[in-house]
From TrEMBL:
Keywords: DNA-binding. It comes from the Bacteria. Pfam families: HEPN (PF05168). The lineage of its organism: Bacteria, Bacillati, Cyanobacteriota, Cyanophyceae, Oscillatoriophycideae. This is DNA-binding protein. Belongs to the UPF0332 family. Residues 6-121 form the HEPN domain. One of its GO terms (molecular function) is DNA binding.
Length: 126
């Protein structure tokens, strides 16, 4: 594993930890945003293993799907998690009344944790 991949996975772990702290303090919109960023860093780490880097979120998500999901190298649900969570940072930062329930926040956090667990165990094998 490249050092940069390790750094991205560490960043993902810290972002997920922040998401849980925010959720525990009822800051649900911001918790979901941090969980999304955890997923985003994981996708970047996988892409970096293929020597692929992108600057926009949409490019990372598209390349992640094309490189790993369409080729069946990773479980399809991880791409869906990323796509579904993508709007969370925008909602958290710009919506005056984000509609995030505690259940939804925990669901996104749990999905990010599943992705992180998988990445930590499998990133070198993919």
């Amino acid at each position: 594993m490249k050092i940069e991949q390790q750094q991205l996975l560490e960043k993902a772990r810290e972002s997920l930890q922040a998401a849980q702290l925010l959720a525990n303090n009822n800051l649900l919109a911001f918790a979901t945003a941090r969980a999304y960023y955890s997923m985003f860093y994981i996708a970047q780490a996988f892409l970096l293993g293929e020597n692929l880097t992108f600057f926009s979120h949409s490019a990372v998500i598209a390349a992640f799907g094309k490189t790993f999901i369409k080729t069946k190298r990773l479980p399809v649900e991880y791409h869906r998690y990323l796509i579904d969570a993508q709007e969370q940072p925008t909602d958290a930062d710009y919506s005056l009344t984000p509609n995030i329930t505690s259940k939804k926040a925990q669901d996104i956090i749990e999905k990010a944790q599943r992705m992180l667990d998988f990445a930590q165990e499998n990133i070198e094998a993919v």
